[in-house]
Amino acid sequence: MTCSLVALTVAALDPSALARFWAGLLSRPAADDPRGGVSLLPTDETGFRIRFTPTAEPKTVPNQMHLDLTSSSPEEQQRTVARALELGGRHIDVGQLPEEGHVVLADPEGNEFCVIEPGNAFLAGCGFIGAVASDGTREVGHFWSRALDWPLVWDQDQETAIRSPLGGPKITWGGPPVPPKPPRNRLHLDLVAVGDRDAEVERLVALGATRLDVGREDGGVLLADPDGNEFCLVDRD
Fold first, then answer.
1. Coil, helix or strand for 107?
2. Which of 135, 139, 211, 235 is deepest in the core (most CB within 10 A)?
3. What is the CATH number of the domain that holds 35?
4. Residue 199, in any domain of the structure
5. How many CB atoms lie within 10 A of CB 148?
């Protein structure tokens, strides 16, 4: 492995306010981020930061990624939903059916997330953040498995999922139909190169990534996965 996942980055109109919402919901400590904005720090070695960086662009379409939060009991699911609403979240309708057990919410800037019902076997043992759930093809799931050297833990009916060997959340891709991609995703993954960054860029391109002709002020290299979703590679974090 020559790169590792260090952050899920969220573009925010008000990074500090959005970080306060998620810090309160996830019970994670917040800190100034070395690359700008605010980060919520992981609470064990399996996690990654959730980084909030400033943007002037309002959210207009559903996100390509969202968090799935787990519950150990119906009471815990209700408490999580109530806490999210108390902090400034709201219920939203994304076409979920009445018989589905999960609750779909949005944070104060409209970013979708789900509070999953207890007894969900797929997310068993993954922690409170059960998954980073993503729109995407089977091809992109295989790309990310090779890119991060995380094993595929699900590969059926065009749906894929990977998980770090250390444990923690899964990253999942739901398969077709994949919604049209917006010009720029509001959420993206940040990776850090373990060795030579230029060599790692070449490895990722060989796996199917595309280098984007857009610079980053922090010196990171912006790329896109085979589905066109942006991600960033840095040489330290």
1. coil
2. 135
3. 3.10.180.10
4. no
5. 19
